[in-house]
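Protein details
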Amino acid sequence: MTVPAQPELCLGTVQFGMAYGIAGRAEAMDDGEARSILEAAHAAGIRRLDTAPGYGNIEERLGALCNGLDFRIITKIPALPPESGETDAAAFVTASLERSRAHLGSSLCGILFHGPHDLEGPLGTAAWAAAAGWCADQDLPLGTSIYGPEQLATLSGQYDIAMAQLPGNALDQRLAAFPHRFEGIEITLRSIFLQGLLLMDRDAAVARLPAATPALDRWHDWCEEQGLDPLDAAVALAKGLPGVTFCTVGVDSVSHLEQIARAWAGAAPKAAPDLAVTAAEIIDPRAWSLAK
C-alpha cells in the first residue's frame, strides 16, 4: 500500500451517532447536520471516514448520508458475545461484516476488530480466521483498533495485521518508541486531542482531570512558548509522530471541522518528547474516572 509523505485526515463518525468525549456535545447529530459536516469535510479534501456498528446507528445511516461524496470508509467488528464458542464467534463475525457491507456498499475500504480483547482471548484465532476469509473474498484489508503500540507489537506477531488504529497525541507519544517495527501496517492515529482535553482552557482541563495537572501545565506552557494555540500545537505534534498514515478526528459542527482542516493544512510536523507521559490515568480515558 502507498504511504503518504505526511498523514492525511480521517473523519471519525462516533459523534454523529452518540454523545462522546470529555469535551463533546451531549447528544447525537441529526441527518442534516451530519450531512453538512460530511460536505464540508469533502470540500476540505478529506476522503477517509471511520465508523462502527457500536457508534449508535451511524453505520447504517452513513451510506445514505455520503450519497454523491466519494468517501472511503473503515468500519469495525463488534466485541464477540459472551460465552461464544468458536463456531458462534465465526458466525457472529461473518454476520457483522455482511451487515456492514450492506450499510456501506462499495465505500467500504477496510475492517478493524473494534478492540484487541477478542484477538487476545481464546476465540482470537477463530474470529480472525472468519474475518480474514471474508476480507480476502472482498479484497479488503483487515486489522484491529488497539490501545497502544505494545499491543500491536504482540498482535502483529500472531496475526497478519494490515491496518491498526491506536491513540497518540502530545501527551501519549508511545508510538515514537516503535518507529520501525510496524512497516507494512497502515497506522491510523486517534485521540490526537485526547478526547478534547488538550483543546480546553487550562483551568477547565485541570478541573476535568486533576491527576493531569502537571502534564497539562507543561502542555499549555509549551504552546505559549511556541506561539501556537492548542489546536495548531496538537495537530503539529500528531503529524510529527512516526509511521502514521491517517489521523482520525471527531467534530461536532461544521465550524469545528473547518477549524481543524485549516490547522491541519497549515501545520508543520513538530516533536516535543518532554511533553510525553506514560501514566494510564492521564493518557487512557478508560482510567480517567479513577484518576479524579
The domain at 8-291 is CATH 3.20.20.100 (TIM Barrel). The CA atoms of residues 12 and 198 lie 18 Å apart. The chain has 13 helices and eight strands.
